[in-house]
């Protein structure tokens, strides 16, 4: 026995060691404290009366069981997959360059849109020829792109980053391929405008060692086969439950929940719930979820809303880095497995190559009501971004103004563009309030969670 809580709950060494193996952790004082705290909080969660404010312990245990058994079924499918050396050889013969990193060009670009009238087009061609002459004479290409380019990349000096030829339109790739570091391309007329490229650097192709290539091919083949088996089984399970693949009476979330339930039932029919590894996962994941729920309950019981004075003080002492608002535009393509989602990468390539502008793409392709406004979603603070799509929240913080990103999340597949941002001194108190409250809540949550841990540890009697 390692410790006792409340003269009732015993923290046993064999259980602690089982939990360490499940987590893949070493025996260390901080891990023992985490395990003991989890044991105490999960016990408290079971003893607490069911409240209307959240799921009961029984419901949590039920949900954990569903997901553990679903995972066990996936592991069962993967365990039956064997990739032969012949399969690897066949794949490498068909794709000898698999996993080779091709030659990549570090590029910056300058783009001018061609107007509709011939006189304007002639003037634009002359302007681009003049810009190329200035670049060839040694004028800073980055500055030229910032001052003259009509592409969104002007906000970052025309930077495209490292680009593979295969990802460029053929006419552009043909012009870029012979370039060497320092070269300025010929003027390229493509799509809706004129392009000029500067090659900053070139990364030579990289070929991994043969044994690494074979290992990666084996992993890729095994994953592909496992995905195929899982998809086939899922279709059978849904069909057996009378759920048609085209049935839209269920939301994607409801369909996924039902599929998890069917997978768990199938796992039970295969007696996977009786496997020692499944039993261990069930025990410790249940403890983990119950402890998290009890932690959240205690934090909410002790939480206090910030006063107006506290918010004003936080605003007065802001540094600017944590207070942000983002003006975002988006193009929606539907759920990740919908036909429209496959179009997202095609549209992304058109946007990156300036073949189409963002507003036009939004009006043409977006399934969201914002399409009528060219995809403009308005100003959003960090909290609103996170509630909209957590993946977008993380991406927006890294985007430069004018940059675009492809995101696949709970709201489906989107291409987002950062139109503008406001930070720190640019925000009024009213603008900053949602973010100030979010930051206060975040800090308070961290403090209260530590307070819960400290109180539990104080009540433990270690041997």
From TrEMBL:
InterPro entries membership: PPIase_dom_sf (IPR046357), PPIase_PpiC (IPR000297), PPIase_PpiC_CS (IPR023058), PrsA_foldase (IPR050245)
Superkingdom of the organism of origin: Bacteria
Keywords: Isomerase, Rotamase
Protein's name according to its UniProt entry: peptidylprolyl isomerase
Keyword Isomerase: yes
The UniProt record lists the keyword Isomerase: yes
Catalytic activity: [protein]-peptidylproline (omega=180) = [protein]-peptidylproline (omega=0)
Chain ranges of the PpiC domain: 102-201, 323-420
EC number of the protein: 5.2.1.8
GO MF terms, alphabetically ordered: peptidyl-prolyl cis-trans isomerase activity
Similarity annotation: Belongs to the PpiC/parvulin rotamase family.
EC class: isomerase
SUPFAM superfamilies: FKBP-like
Upper lineage: Bacteria, Pseudomonadati, Pseudomonadota, Gammaproteobacteria, Lysobacterales
Signal peptide: none
């Amino acid at each position: 026995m390692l410790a006792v809580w409340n003269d009732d709950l015993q923290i046993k060494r064999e259980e602690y060691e089982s939990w360490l193996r499940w987590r893949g952790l070493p025996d260390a004082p901080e891990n023992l404290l985490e395990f003991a705290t989890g044991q105490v909080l999960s016990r408290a969660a079971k003893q607490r009366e069911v409240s209307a404010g959240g799921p009961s312990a029984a419901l949590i245990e039920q949900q954990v069981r569903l997901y553990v058994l679903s995972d066990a079924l996936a592991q069962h499918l993967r365990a039956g997959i064997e990739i032969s050396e012949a399969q690897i050889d066949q794949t490498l013969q068909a794709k000898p360059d698999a996993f080779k990193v091709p030659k990549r060009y570090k590029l910056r670009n300058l783009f001018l849109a061609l107007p509709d009238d011939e006189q304007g087009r002639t003037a634009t061609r002359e302007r681009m020829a003049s810009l190329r002459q200035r670049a060839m004479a040694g004028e800073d290409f980055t500055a030229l792109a910032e001052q003259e380019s009509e592409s969104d990349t002007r906000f970052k000096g025309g930077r495209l980053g490292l680009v593979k030829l295969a990802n460029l339109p053929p006419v552009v790739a043909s012009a870029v391929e012979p370039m060497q570091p320092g070269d300025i391309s010929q003027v390229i007329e493509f799509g809706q405008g004129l392009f000029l490229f500067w090659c900053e650097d070139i990364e030579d192709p990289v070929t991994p060692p043969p044994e690494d290539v074979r290992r990666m091919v084996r992993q890729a083949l095994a994953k592909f086969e496992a995905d195929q088996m899982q998809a086939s089984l899922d279709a059978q399970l849904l069909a057996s439950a009378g759920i048609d693949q085209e049935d839209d009476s269920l939301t994607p979330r409801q369909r996924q929940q039902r599929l998890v339930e069917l997978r768990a039932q199938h796992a039970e029919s295969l007696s996977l719930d009786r496997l020692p590894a499944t039993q261990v996962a069930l025990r410790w994941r249940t403890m983990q979820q119950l402890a998290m729920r009890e932690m959240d309950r205690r934090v909410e019981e002790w939480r206090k809303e910030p006063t107006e004075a506290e918010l004003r003080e936080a605003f007065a002492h802001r540094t600017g880095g944590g207070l942000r608002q983002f003006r975002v535009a988006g193009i929606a393509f539907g759920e990740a497995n919908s036909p429209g989602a496959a179009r997202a990468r095609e549209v992304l390539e058109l946007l990156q190559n300036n073949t189409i502008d963002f507003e036009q793409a939004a009006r043409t392709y977006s399934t969201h009501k914002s399409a009528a406004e060219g995809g403009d979603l308005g100003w959003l603070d960090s909290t609103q971004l996170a509630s909209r799509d957590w993946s977008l929240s993380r991406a927006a913080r890294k985007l430069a103004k004018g940059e675009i990103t492809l995101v696949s999340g709970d709201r489906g597949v989107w291409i987002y563009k950062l139109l503008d941002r406001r930070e720190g001194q640019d925000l009024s108190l009213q603008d900053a309030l949602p973010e100030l409250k979010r930051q206060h809540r975040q800090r308070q949550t961290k403090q209260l969670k530590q307070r819960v841990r400290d109180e539990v540890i104080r009540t433990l009697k270690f041997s």
